[in-house]
Amino acid sequence: MEAGGESSDVQVPVYNSTELLVKLQEKWKSGIKQPYPAMYSSVFGGVVVDPALMVIPIDDHMVHRGHGVFDTAMILDGYLYELDAHLNRFLNSAAKAKISSPFPKSTLRSILIQLTAVSQCKRGSLRYWLSSGPGDFLLSPSGCPTPAFYAVVIEDNYAQRKEGVKAITSTIPMKSPLFATMKNVNYLPNVLAVMEAEETGAFASIWVDEEGYIAEGPNVNVAFITKEKELVLPVFDKILSGCTAKRLLEVAFKLIELGLLKSARTGNITLEEGKNAAEMMYVGSGLPILPIVAWDELPIGDVLMTLHWHCYINKEELRCLLGSGKVGELTLALSDLLWEDMVAGPEAQRLRVFYV
What's the rounded mean pLDDT across residues 317-324? Predict the structure, then answer.
C-alpha cells in the first residue's frame, strides 16, 4: 500500500549487491558493444574494465553540485596527443574551482598512461575529472573528506573532417569569463547551445559576447581566414584556452613560410568581420578542424557576402542566390598540417603508450 492508503500495481524491487551487479551487467551486455574499455577511480584506487562498475558515488559534489573540472586527451594510433598541455590546463581549471588534487601531477599523469595501456584502445579519447569528492548533499565541500579523481577511456574511430558544416549564432547566454576560462562540468549552457543549433539543422552554435566580439562554440574554438590571408582566433581572455587552437597557431607558421598565410594570431573579431571572412572553421581536439560553410544560413567565403553587409541585400534573396559557401583551400591546408601533427608529429606532442 502507498502512503495515504492508495494501492498501486508498481512493485519496487530491493536488490542486494550481488543481484544488483547481475542486473547492471545484463543492462551493459544487452548486445551493444560499449566503447568504454577501462575506467580509473580514486574512490577505490584502481582500474575496472567492466562497464557495469564504472560508477561515481551519488553524493559526489561533482554529481549534485557541479563542483568538478575535466579535460580530454586524444589517443591516436597508440599515442596520447598533447597530454601534458591538457593536464596543465586541467590543473589550472582545478585551481580556479578551488579543488585540490589527491595526487601530484606526476602521479595523475602516470595513472592516465597506465589506464590507457590497460584499455588496449589505440584510437579514441582519454577523459578525466577532478571533483571535490563524495561526502554529503550540502553546498559546501567541507564535508567531503577527500577530492576524487576519475578517468575513462572512450573508443572512437576519430578521423580528419573535411566536409563543411553550418553554424548559427547562439541565443543562449554564454558563461561569464570566470566559468568560461575553466573547463568545469557545468555544461548546461553548452548543451542548450548545441540543441539550439541541431534544431535548425546546424552542426553547432557560436557565442558572441556582450561587447559584440566572437567568442567560441559550445565545446570548440572558432577560427577565421581573413581576405588578407590572416589566420585569426578570438583572444582567450573570456573563453576557454583551447589546446588544439593554440597548437594550430604554432603549426600555421609552415603556411606563413610558404607565403600562403600572412600571419597567425589572436584578436578581437566582430560579428560583421567574422561573417565577412574568406574562410571559417571550428577547432577542437576531436575534429581537429571542421570547416564552416554557412553561418546563420548565409554562406562563408563568397564575395557577395560583402554586398549583404554593406548594401543591405535581403537575407532571403542572398540565400537563394548563393546557398552554402565552399570549404576553403587554406582551411584544408591547416587541417592537413594539424592532422599530420596529431598522427606523426614531434615527440614533444605525442606520447607513446606501451600497452600491457
Answer: 51
Residues whose CB falls within 8 Å of the CB of residue 270, separated by 6 or more in sequence, listed in order: 212, 213, 214
Task: Report how far residue 66's alpha carbon sits from residue 255's, in angstroms, rounded to the nearest whole number.
Answer: 42
Assign 4 a pLDDT band (cuts: 50, 70, 90).
Answer: low
What's the pLDDT score for residue 337?
97
- Kindly state the cell numbers that stand for 334: 591547416
Residues 220 and 146 in one domain: no
Domain end position, chosen among 155, 173, 192: 155
Categorize the per-residue pLDDT at 323 as very low, low, confident or very high, splitting at 50, 70 and 90: low
Would you tell me the crossing angle of helices 105-119 and 83-96 to the nearest 10 degrees?
A: 130
Q: Measure the CA–CA gap between 292 and 222, rounded to whole angstroms.
A: 9
Owning domain of residue 130: 17-155
**How many angstroms separate the Cα of 191 from the Cα of each of 82, 87, 176, 203, 292?**
26, 24, 16, 13, 20
189 within domain boundaries: yes
pTM to 2 decimals?
Answer: 0.90
Q: In one letter, which amino acid is 205?
A: S
Residues designated catalytic: 183
**Do residues 195 and 230 share a domain?**
yes
